């Protein structure tokens, strides 16, 4: 007999296609509860809560038993399924493929892993076809309402993924009507807007696609006070650049929320309470003892809040920080926020957050409490659309804070957690075959604290539950030394101590040494930092695997690599053990040496064909907690070396960072500044360090200061292998170029072409050629061999297979041929932008887009040019590392465009501002002729950009 259960519509049970009468509404609700968690036990108390919510009848358990009995008889008689009862509750035992919800999830999962777009589209269609109506139709309980909302979210995500697959399969025409209808029903959904834009563009309706973007942008600004997300802007750029062939990523709300492979148990009501608190106040703090589950609860709540936050949810973890001084810097890194020279990180974060609507999760605040509270208080006061969700062992103590203590699990949920984790360690674990009450006793003695329960459950591989319970009797002796601690914290500490004592000596030593890692780590790092040279690779893997099996280490896999981490509570314990055995200093030194060597390899790797892989590993990116898994370890290595005054180690580290700065701006430039003020000027790496801080001043538009800093090198050039952007003399030449002396800059860079040391590096050659073409445009000149010179640089760059070198050389080629062959220039500049995007080189992305905007303006495509310049200005403002210098260069071209457009007033006003700010050298010669002295204009950099953006929009058609 064929059995089928349906909940994606009316609740139905069918045998051979014939429906069974499953009874009235409450009995159908019992069946639905078991189907949603098919083959998993649902505790009786949870079933009662799902069915009757806050108003259960007298003797609710008896009523529930009656419903279960009727269903068991009905389903058993029909041969449809079995309802079984175990210590953790009732479960419907059946083939999950017979439940339409399970079939839907399986088809969606297969579609997302499909090898081609047509197959994926077909699987998505099959999955979506299972939906007959509103899920759990006719059930009206709070639980059913919550399940419906969750399932509708799953359906919408599948539908949007289906749209992506259909677009990739070239089925854009058939999507137009459905997408337009979806956007009307969800007018603020940026992902739907992005899909409609692509479908319109690929159907030959570029104007409609651009109009869809302008309309969406207007809605977001008017209703939410935010700009379109970077993902939607990326779709807009693709359309603006006329590139319909390459599918652009669909915009999702950004979130750096780590995913866990295990399900969250017993926290559904807590999630609802936290969500409600987030809707009511600017700051919510989850408090509780270590190991109670604050972080997991915060992440799960944030994940569910994504749909309600236009700006997404962003995570910053404070556990890697050594002290509170780095709080602002850590949040800036998490959000990819730029700061001006001399600006405090806290101020930069606040400037960035003020106009946005997002959820900011700050995890593990307790050890940086004062500094975290100071920043959160300012966010709550100055950023009206930002909500902070913090986790801490104690409240932050800020105005408007809602404190929600996270309680241990109930007895039933604690037993459910223990059973599930025990089965992960020992698949044949059956609580019914264990001594009566043993599992409940374990959970009671561990006070229902999840971390302690998971550690104990990990022991079930080698012990019975009775053995574990007996050993827990001794824990009271172990916690006697922590009289000032919370009783439950004593239980956690004692459980960790017990778990530690059960490790082999080799595992104990490794666990303690793993506490040196400030962030995640891989096996290579473990071998280099934590074990003796005689220990083989397989032995290291066995030791780490043993710690994973015992829940002392967590596995985090992603981007094709397996990485590990240690929970904050466990790491704190391990650090104490490391201090006690006297090896902390030696392990920290090995850690610092390893990560300095790693960043040196990364710096070399970023100049080769594997640039993308090294960027993925080293460069921190906004909101993605584990996207730059080694950056926290680099910070720790730097602080260790500075504290020991090991300046050789410090300089090796900071002179390997310039390629990182191109992606994230100069967040960590204070590392270099401290190094330069402390190091011996005769050190061979000193000129490269000086060149790095001088370049930082240059990109911030502080040209005089940049030259002063460059002078610290005493005319010495960095040694071979230094970053191509860390040469002090280059900074002096670039300052001259931007201050009006293009001829001396041209002479300098022409001279470098004769130096074999400089032209041997294809990236450095590409930079030199880029500056030569830039100088010629400033001077309005050319030279006979310029095109050949640039094409040779392109060839040399292509030979390296390095995306940044290839992009930079193509920027030069596009600039060099723009006047004679603008179509060729646009083609190579699009290639430059794509190559730069593939390795997240924000400087080159902005440069390529700016050059394309200049060509559009020169050809008379005023509306497209205006839109392009607005886009470029937005790019620099979002944090391109040339946030000031490149911004002013762009504004010089904007003046020329405004003049061509007939807006003499705006052009003249912007000319006057640039003149009074000392930026007149960036104006074209025609604009220089018209400058008049109209008095000093006092505007900030941001106000100048806003003025230009407003003037451009009247020609771009933007709202």
TrEMBL record:
GO MF term set: DNA binding
SUPFAM superfamilies for the chain: C-terminal effector domain of the bipartite response regulators, P-loop containing nucleoside triphosphate hydrolases, TPR-like
Gene3D superfamilies xrefs: Tetratricopeptide repeat domain (1.25.40.10), Winged helix-like DNA-binding domain superfamily/Winged helix DNA-binding domain (1.10.10.10)
Keywords tagged on the record: DNA-binding
Gene Ontology process terms (BP): phosphorelay signal transduction system; regulation of DNA-templated transcription
Pfam families according to UniProt: BTAD, HTH_77, Trans_reg_C
Domain Bacterial transcriptional activator, first and last residues per copy: 99-240
Domain OmpR/PhoB-type: residue ranges: 17-92
InterPro entries given in the database record: BTAD, HTH_77, OmpR/PhoB-type_DNA-bd, P-loop_NTPase, Sig_transdc_resp-reg_C-effctor, TPR-like_helical_dom_sf, WH-like_DNA-bd_sf
Domain of life: Bacteria
Family stated for the protein in its record: Belongs to the AfsR/DnrI/RedD regulatory family.
PANTHER family documented for this protein: HTH-TYPE TRANSCRIPTIONAL REGULATOR RV0890C-RELATED (PTHR47691:SF3), REGULATOR-RELATED (PTHR47691)
Name listed for the protein in its UniProt record: Putative ATPase
Organism: Mycolicibacterium chubuense (strain NBB4)
């Amino acid at each position: 007999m064929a059995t089928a259960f349906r909940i994606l519509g009316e609740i139905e049970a069918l045998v051979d296609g014939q429906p069974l009468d499953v009874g009235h509404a409450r009995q159908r609700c019992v069946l639905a509860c078991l189907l949603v968690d098919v083959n998993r036990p649902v505790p009786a108390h949870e079933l009662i809560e799902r069915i009757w919510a806050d108003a259960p009848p007298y003797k609710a358990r008896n009523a529930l038993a009656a419903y279960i009995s009727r269903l068991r008889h009905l389903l058993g008689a029909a041969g449809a399924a079995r309802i079984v009862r175990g210590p953790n509750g009732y479960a419907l035992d059946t083939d999950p493929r017979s439940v339409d919800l399970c079939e839907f999830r399986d088809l969606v999962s297969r579609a997302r892993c499909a090898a081609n777009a047509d197959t994926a589209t077909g699987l998505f269609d099959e999955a979506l076809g299972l939906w007959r109506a509103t899920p759990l139709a006719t059930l009206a309980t709070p639980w059913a309402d919550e399940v419906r909302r969750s399932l509708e979210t799953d359906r919408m995500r599948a539908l949007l993924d289906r749209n992506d697959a259909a677009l990739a399969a070239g089925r854009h025409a058939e999507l137009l009507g459905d997408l337009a209808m979806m956007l009307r029903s969800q007018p603020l959904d940026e992902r739907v807007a992005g899909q409609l834009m692509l479908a319109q563009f690929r159907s030959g309706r570029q104007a409609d696609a651009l109009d869809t973007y302008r309309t969406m942008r207007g809605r977001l600004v008017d209703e939410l006070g935010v700009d379109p997300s970077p993902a939607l802007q990326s779709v807009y750029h693709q359309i603006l650049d006329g590139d319909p062939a390459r599918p652009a990523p669909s915009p999702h709300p950004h979130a750096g929320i780590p995913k866990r492979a295990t399900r969250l148990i017993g926290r559904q009501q807590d999630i609802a309470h936290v969500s409600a608190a987030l809707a009511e106040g600017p700051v919510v703090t989850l408090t509780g003892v270590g190991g109670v589950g604050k972080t997991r609860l915060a992440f799960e709540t944030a994940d569910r809040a994504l749909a309600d936050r236009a700006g997404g949810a962003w995570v910053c973890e404070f556990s890697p920080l050594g002290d509170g001084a780095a709080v602002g810097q850590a949040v800036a890194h998490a959000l990819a926020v730029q700061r001006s020279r001399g600006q405090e990180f806290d101020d930069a974060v606040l400037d960035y957050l003020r106009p946005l609507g997002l959820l900011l999760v700050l995890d593990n605040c307790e050890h940086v409490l004062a500094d975290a509270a100071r920043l959160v208080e300012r966010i709550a006061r100055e950023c009206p659309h930002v909500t902070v969700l913090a986790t801490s062992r104690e409240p932050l103590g800020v105005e408007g804070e809602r404190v929600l203590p996270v309680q241990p699990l109930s007895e039933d949920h604690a037993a459910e957690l223990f059973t599930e984790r025990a089965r992960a360690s020992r698949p044949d674990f059956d609580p019914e075959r264990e001594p009566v009450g043993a599992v409940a006793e374990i959970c009671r003695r561990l006070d229902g604290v999840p971390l302690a329960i998971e550690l104990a459950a990990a022991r079930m591989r080698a012990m019975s539950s009775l053995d574990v319970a007996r050993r827990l009797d001794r824990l009271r002796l172990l916690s006697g030394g922590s009289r000032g601690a919370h009783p439950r914290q004593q239980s956690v500490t004692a459980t960790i101590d017990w778990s530690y004592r059960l490790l082999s000596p080799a595992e104990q030593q490794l666990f303690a040494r793993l506490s040196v890692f400030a962030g995640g780590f891989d096996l290579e790092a473990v071998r280099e930092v934590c074990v003796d040279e005689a220990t083989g690779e397989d032995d290291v893997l066995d030791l780490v695997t043993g710690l994973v099996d015992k829940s002392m280490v967590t596995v985090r896999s992603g981007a094709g690599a397996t990485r590990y981490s240690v929970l904050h509570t466990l790491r704190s314990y391990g650090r104490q053990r490391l201090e006690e055995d006297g090896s902390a200093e030696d392990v920290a030194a090995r850690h610092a040496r390893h990560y300095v060597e790693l960043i040196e390899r990364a710096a070399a790797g970023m100049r080769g064909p594997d640039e993308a892989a090294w960027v993925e590993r080293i460069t921190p990116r906004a909101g993605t907690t584990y996207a730059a898994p080694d950056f926290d370890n680099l910070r720790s290595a730097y602080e260790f070396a500075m504290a020991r005054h090991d300046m050789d180690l410090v300089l090796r580290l900071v002179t390997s960072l310039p390629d990182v700065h191109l992606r994230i701006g100069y967040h960590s430039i204070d590392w270099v500044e401290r190094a330069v003020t402390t190091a011996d000027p005769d050190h061979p790496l000193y000129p490269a360090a000086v060149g790095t801080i001088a370049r930082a001043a240059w990109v911030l538009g502080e040209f005089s200061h940049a030259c002063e800093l460059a002078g610290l090198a005493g005319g010495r050039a960095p040694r071979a292998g230094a970053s191509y952007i860390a040469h002090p003399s280059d900074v002096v030449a670039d300052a001259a170029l931007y201050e009006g002396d293009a001829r001396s800059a041209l002479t300098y860079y022409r001279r470098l072409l004769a130096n074999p040391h400089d032209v041997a590096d294809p990236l450095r050659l590409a930079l030199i050629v880029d500056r030569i073409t830039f100088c010629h445009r400033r001077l309005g000149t050319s030279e006979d061999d310029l095109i050949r010179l640039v094409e040779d640089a392109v060839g040399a760059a292509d030979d390296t297979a390095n995306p940044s070198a290839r992009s930079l050389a193509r920027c030069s080629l596009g600039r060099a041929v723009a006047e004679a062959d603008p179509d060729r220039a646009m083609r190579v500049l699009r290639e430059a932008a794509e190559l730069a995007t593939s390795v997240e080189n924000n400087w080159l992305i902005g440069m390529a887009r700016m050059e394309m905007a200049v060509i559009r303006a020169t050809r008379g495509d005023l509306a497209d040019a205006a839109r392009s310049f607005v886009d470029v200005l937005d790019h620099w403002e979002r944090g391109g590392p040339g946030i000031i210098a490149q911004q002013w260069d762009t504004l010089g071209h904007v003046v020329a465009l405004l003049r061509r457009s007939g807006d003499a007033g705006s052009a003249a006003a912007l000319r006057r501002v640039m003149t009074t700010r000392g930026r007149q050298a960036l104006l074209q010669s025609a604009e220089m002729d018209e400058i008049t002295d109209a008095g000093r204009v006092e505007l900030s950099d941001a106000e100048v950009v806003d003025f230009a953006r407003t003037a451009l929009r009247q020609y771009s058609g933007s709202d």
